[in-house]
Description:
Strand content: 15-25%
Helix content: 40-55%
Strand order of the largest sheet: 1-9-8-7-3-4-5-6
Low-confidence stretches: 1-7, 132-137
Shape: elongated
Radius of gyration: 29 Å
Number of helices: 8
Mean pLDDT: 81
Distance between the termini: 49 Å
Number of strands: 10
Amino acid sequence: MLEMTGVADLLRGVAFLYWxxxxxxxxxxxxxxxxxxxxxxxxxxxxVLFGYIPVTGYVEDQRSIKLKxxxxxxxxxxxxxxxxxxxxxxxxxKVEGVDGLLLLRPRAMATSADFRNQYxxxxxxxYDLDAATVRESRRxxxxxxxxxxxxxxxIETKANEYRYVRYSLDPVEGYRAPVLAESVSEPSALxxxxxxxxxxxxxxxxxxxxxxxxxxxxxxxxxVAEHVGYLGDPQLGSAGxxxxxxxxxxxxxxxxxGNTVSGNNFRFASxxxxxSKK
Length: 278
């Protein structure tokens, strides 16, 4: 990045002048004084004067490297701990031939700033929206509609008061058809999907995000399946133009393994609520 701005060339130029002046001063200190005691004294002054910045810089670099290594070791240990102690999945039963489901807590599309925000509590682990591959229109439900006939959304209007919207694909258009939306008085789905970001401040300190997803039978409020997992950014949030949460999510960085299946909430829902054939 510095190479593109020209700043790197400027810094190299400053460093060259610094060492050129240092060599000139050293030459003068060695050859200008007549007495060896004076030569020794002024040579020592030049070495101390011009050596102070490089030496302190080196010491600080080594300290920074040590602290980064220590932080990474702590982060790896913490990630292993939360995965061992907290990650889990249970499926009480699977349901065949499901036409659709209700999103009990609809997601908002994450922004670039969200994916760079260490403390964004939008559940990076279970996040299931991909702006790069879906339509702008209703893209927060499009992934579900590729498997289910419809998906419904519960939207809170006041405290404990809701309205419902049902989404489906226009059957005339075929693949990547426009999403049709209609308001309904009550959902027709029998099961709902609920998600929660369970990250703690300590988790986020180490760029670790935890998420919980539950499949609920709406009539009885029975939890028929639950999934808890964690995602970590291997680069610990470092650097430039990258989006740490997005990179970790899309490129397989640090998912919990073992009894927990890596991936987003949509994949979890479709393993429990088996879509009917369209």
